[in-house]
């Protein structure tokens, strides 16, 4: 390797491909007023309490933030029924994922995860020169027996996204079974709950967190970018045993999360009334999206309150049809029979999506 050259492991990294921005889709396809449904974003702006916290925090950005994030970690701990020693915060849940790989992976180690899943998994594993052991989905669902069978003495991390992206499958019962199966392996079991609702809104999530607390090898990742609608803020957290949490905190780096993000995160957690109201609202919007897709005779494979994924042999054709109508969805080269729809932002966007799907159905006799 030449002096100054990029490490071979980094050169071999697969590229992470996020959903296109609406402006990019408009420029590439010569369209206007694009509806962006490709990136699983919460399309609704932050609530006034969060905006107020953001404005107040902006006045103090000349000072360094609390690099230990004591206030926010304490609030998160209170939310999930633990203390701050069991909580780490970072630059989005994907930032914490990267720090986890940095802390635990060496060349020759392996990471086991179902595939297809979150595209950042192979990127971060390859960055460390480790091996990705991708376990194929069966019927678009996790085969967790096969996941457990793929684990060996060099397995450092098992990554499980629940709900999974893009299939939308949520499997708390089978997750618990896998936690029991892998407890003696010596590796970390990572539950990526970026798309899960807060425990205060969905009791199923709270029950899962409480049950997983009994396993010292389990870490749970959560995001402020999905339910809380702060994707641009880049804030996430991890819940787990103090020894693993300490490793994450040490490798996040000094002042890795801005003071603005820390203050906004605390404000969002403290507004429990909004959380309950917003959870109900997202469920209603999801039901409306499901109705629109079902009326177009599309089979819904799964989803969350921020996206729904359909299964059709004509997924790429439907994607292109919608793109011509300035509606941008997410297709997958490795799963060409799937198409993912984010939640439209308003009634007008819902109407445009419904009209375009109805046109497609008539054109293709679906």
What's the number of helices? Answer: 14
CATH superfamily of the largest domain: Type I PLP-dependent aspartate aminotransferase-like (Major domain)
Distance between the termini: 56 Å
Classify the beta-strand content into a percent band.
15-25%
What CATH architecture label of the largest domain applies?
A: 3-Layer(aba) Sandwich
**CATH fold topology of the largest domain:** Aspartate Aminotransferase, domain 2
On the 0 to 100 scale, the average pLDDT is 90
Strand order of the largest sheet: 2-8-7-6-5-3-4
In which range does the helix fraction lie?
A: 40-55%
Return the structural class.
alpha/beta
Based on DSSP secondary structure assignment, what is the total number of beta strands?
13
Model regions low in confidence, pLDDT < 50 over at least 5 residues: none
CATH class of the largest domain: Alpha Beta
List the helices and strands in order: HHEHHEHEHEHEHEHEEHHHEEHEEEH
Question: Main β-sheet, in a few words?
Answer: 7 strands, mixed
Radius of gyration: 21 Å
Shape: globular
Tally of discrete structural domains: 2
Reconstruct the topology from this structure.
Layout: H1 8-11, H2 22-29, E1 35-36, H3 48-58, H4 70-80, E2 87-90, H5 92-104, E3 110-115, H6 120-127, E4 131-136, H7 144-150, E5 155-161, H8 172-181, E6 188-192, H9 203-212, E7 218-223, E8 236-239, H10 242-252, H11 259-270, H12 272-295, E9 299-303, E10 307-311, H13 315-324, E11 327-328, E12 330-331, E13 338-342, H14 347-364
Parallel strand pairs: 1-11, 3-4, 3-5, 5-6, 6-7
Antiparallel strand pairs: 2-8, 7-8, 9-10, 10-13, 12-13
Helix pairs in contact: 3-11, 4-11, 5-6, 5-10, 7-8, 12-14
């Amino acid at each position: 390797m030449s002096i100054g050259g990029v490490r071979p492991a980094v050169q071999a990294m697969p590229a992470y491909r996020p959903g296109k921005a609406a402006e990019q889709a408009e420029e590439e396809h010569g369209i206007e007023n694009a509806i962006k449904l490709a990136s699983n974003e919460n399309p609704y702006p932050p609530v006034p309490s969060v905006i107020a916290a953001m404005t107040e925090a902006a006045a103090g950005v000349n000072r360094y933030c609390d690099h230990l994030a004591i206030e926010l970690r304490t609030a998160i701990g209170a939310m999930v029924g633990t203390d701050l020693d069991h909580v780490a915060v970072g630059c989005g849940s994907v930032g914490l994922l990267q720090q986890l790989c940095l802390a635990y992976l060496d060349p020759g180690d392996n990471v086991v995860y179902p595939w297809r899943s979150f595209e950042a998994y192979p990127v971060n594993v390859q960055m460390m020169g480790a091996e990705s052991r991708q376990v194929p989905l069966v019927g678009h669902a996790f085969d967790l027996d096969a996941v457990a069978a793929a684990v060996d003495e060099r397995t450092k991390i098992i990554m499980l996204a629940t709900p999974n992206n893009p299939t939308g499958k949520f499997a708390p019962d089978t997750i618990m079974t896998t936690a029991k199966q892998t407890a003696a392996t010596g590796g970390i079991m990572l539950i990526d709950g970026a798309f899960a609702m807060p425990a205060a809104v969905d009791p199923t999530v709270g029950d899962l967190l409480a049950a997983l607390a009994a396993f010292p090898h389990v870490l749970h990742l959560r995001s402020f970018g999905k339910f809380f609608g702060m994707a641009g803020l880049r804030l996430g957290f991890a819940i787990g045993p103090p020894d693993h949490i300490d490793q994450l905190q040490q490798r996040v780096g000094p002042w890795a999360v801005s003071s603005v993000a820390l203050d906004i995160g605390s404000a969002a957690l403290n507004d429990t009334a909004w959380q309950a109201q917003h959870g109900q609202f997202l469920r209603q919007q999801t039901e409306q999206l499901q109705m629109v897709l079902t009326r177009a005779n599309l089979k819904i494979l799964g989803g969350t309150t921020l996206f729904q994924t359909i299964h059709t042999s004509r997924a790429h054709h439907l994607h292109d049809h919608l793109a011509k109508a300035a509606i941008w969805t997410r297709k997958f080269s490795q799963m060409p029979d799937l198409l993912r729809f984010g939640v439209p932002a308003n009634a007008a966007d819902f109407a445009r999506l419904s009209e375009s799907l109805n046109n497609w159905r008539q054109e293709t006799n679906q």
